[in-house]
């Protein structure tokens, strides 16, 4: 079919083109029209198209054949995203709400909400030699939440962690293992006599007594007498820390400790162990409604000995007590009932006015000082 008119350009039927040129123009025009006209796909093309459509519906068409995700794949991805947000979004929303109400649950202080009066206190290194001066002053008032505020002990170790046993070596006829046993028993005595909760409540300190040598003349008799009938000159506070549970309640679970243990060869085929430790006890009144906190500081110096059992009549591994001394700070000095009696700022101190020298109970650079009989010393801080 030709869409070319039989009339040739040129007005009155006259042609300005030759017949050959006109025929070539007609052929070219007819070819271009055929090429641009829509063509019906071949039978093979129709088969391939139908097969791909069916594979899309089944979801098994190779991914590489698609330019983008199929409708089914898009739906599956959307469903997965909704499920993921359901699992993560709800708990995340709960966490955000809780933190908004209580930012202190976050570690550190990301919002800068910490109070300036509660700085974090880094622990002091263990004491390995006698201090040369008293610790510097600290600011703060003890509370139920911060019972060591305002005390150098805030940077001391907690409880038994502060009682560090040195590495054992052989001493004289005693082997390294024997010395190690003696050092471990020394720590046990300190812990059970000054940190054990039952002992602090005034109960009998059986575990502490078990470290002592029953063959040491009079020692166990004296200890049993102190516990059975406390009094002036025979007070169990000489070796054990005790509070009357009807009067005093410990604040929190921590007693602060600081000191050192050393050892050397003794004169009786023995090892002599020297222990010098301070213990700081935060307390309040036994009344559960009490919020006032004070502290009692107890310093103990012990010289203990373990002799060669092949040369002396001793119990292997048990401790003989050669010296026991103590300094009790912030406790009524005129009461001898076997308990410590801390004083509180809000209470009438009663008893005699302080008449002894002023001492710093945290000053471990000095030796234990004893006041004159009947005198009550003055504390520079507690």
TrEMBL record:
Stretches the record annotates as Disordered: 1-78, 107-155, 343-382
Composition-biased stretches (Low complexity): 129-143
Keyword Membrane: yes
Name assigned to this protein: Uncharacterized protein
Record key words, sorted: Membrane, Transmembrane, Transmembrane helix
Domain of life the protein comes from: Bacteria
Compositionally biased residues, Basic and acidic residues: 25-34, 41-64
Organism classification: Bacteria, Bacillati, Actinomycetota, Actinomycetes, Kitasatosporales
TM spans (from-to): 84-101
């Amino acid at each position: 079919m030709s869409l070319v008119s039989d009339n040739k350009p040129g007005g009155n039927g006259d042609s300005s083109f030759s017949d050959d040129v006109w025929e070539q123009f007609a052929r070219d025009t007819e070819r271009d029209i055929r090429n641009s006209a829509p063509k019906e796909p071949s039978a093979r093309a129709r088969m391939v198209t139908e097969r791909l459509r069916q594979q899309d519906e089944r979801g098994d068409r190779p991914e590489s054949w698609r330019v983008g995700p199929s409708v089914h794949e898009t739906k599956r991805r959307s469903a997965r995203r909704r499920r993921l947000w359901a699992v993560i979004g709800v708990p995340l929303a709960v966490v955000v709400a809780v933190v908004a109400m209580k930012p202190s649950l976050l570690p550190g202080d990301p919002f800068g909400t910490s109070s300036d009066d509660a700085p974090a206190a880094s622990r002091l290194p263990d004491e390995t030699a006698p201090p040369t001066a008293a610790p510097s002053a600290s600011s703060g008032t003890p509370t139920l939440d911060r019972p060591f505020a305002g005390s150098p002990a805030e940077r001391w170790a907690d409880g038994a962690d502060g009682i560090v046993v040195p590495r054992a070596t052989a001493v004289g006829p005693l082997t390294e293992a024997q010395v190690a046993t003696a050092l471990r028993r020394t720590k046990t005595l300190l812990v059970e006599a000054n940190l054990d909760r039952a002992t602090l409540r005034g109960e009998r300190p059986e575990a502490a007594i078990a470290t002592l040598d029953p063959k040491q003349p009079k020692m166990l008799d004296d200890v049993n007498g102190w516990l059975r009938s406390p009094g002036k000159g025979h007070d169990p506070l000489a070796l054990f820390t005790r509070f009357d549970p009807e009067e005093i309640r410990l604040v929190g679970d921590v007693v602060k400790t600081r000191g050192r243990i050393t050892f050397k060869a003794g004169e009786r085929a023995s090892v002599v162990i020297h222990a010098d430790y301070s213990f700081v006890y935060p307390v309040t009144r036994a009344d559960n409604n009490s919020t006032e906190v004070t502290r009692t500081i107890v310093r103990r110096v012990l010289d203990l000995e373990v002799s060669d059992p092949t040369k002396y009549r001793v119990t292997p591994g048990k401790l003989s007590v050669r010296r026991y001394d103590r300094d009790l700070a912030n406790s009524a000095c005129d009461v001898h009932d076997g308990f410590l009696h801390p004083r509180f700022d809000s209470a009438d101190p009663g008893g005699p006015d302080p008449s002894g020298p002023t001492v710093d109970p945290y000053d471990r650079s000095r030796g234990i000082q004893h006041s004159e009989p009947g005198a009550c010393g003055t504390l520079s801080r507690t």
